[in-house]
Fold:
Amino acid sequence: MNEFVRKAEGTALPWSKEEFEARIRAVGAERYHDKHEFHRMLHGGALNKNQVAAWALNRYCYQEAVPRKDAALMSRVYDREFRREWIHRIHDHDGLLPEETGGIERWLKLTDCLGLDRGYVTSMRGALPATRFAVEAYVRFVVEQPLVVAVASSLTELFAPSIHRERIAGMLANYSFVNDDVMAYFKRRLSQAPRDADFALEFVKENARTREAQEACIDAVRFKCDVLWAQLDALYLAYVVGMIPPGAYRPEGT
Structure:
């Protein structure tokens, strides 16, 4: 049997769209960061105000990177209808003045409430090194991977509404220093994330047409889960265990 025949016989057929979607969703069931101990502590009221501030400060780096990631992805796309849909993501985060201030502004209301100076937050000087490395790895991934794989990396949004609902309820119930107004970011994402995820999922299911492409898309969702998980590992090590690296945010008294 020649090499060509062996390769042809070893080529797996693509999954059906239904099975492909089920495999994508299974990644969230296994790996999404709602299962991380730091999130359990955050939502359960086990953190103090300084630890919550450290989380919000570091998470700002991710919030800031998301519209840059989406702009980079759009720069690769020739399909105007795709760009018209995807640009909502940038408006959601950066705002579309005058009527929409955007998710980053809503996030800064949270860091304001936690006593963090806006200039310090937006400078990202106090962020953990692992946070910065993780979020920039995500931006680079979207720039460098095939388009359908880059789009697939956003599909952690499929799993986001449940964590937002849990966060809203848990933080309002357990922390006196937060209120409905400062939880506005998460409330807005309850409607934004499903809209974005539905579009991305249909695009990926339609355009990942080989088993190899489908597997690469699933790996992209795993990668994105790793990006989110790594940020929480760093937070836990620094602000629960106490191994705060030089230059990172250091609450008073630590």
User: Anything to note?
Assistant: The first helix runs from residue 3 to 10. The CA atoms of residues 44 and 170 lie 6 Å apart. The chain has one domain: 17-241.
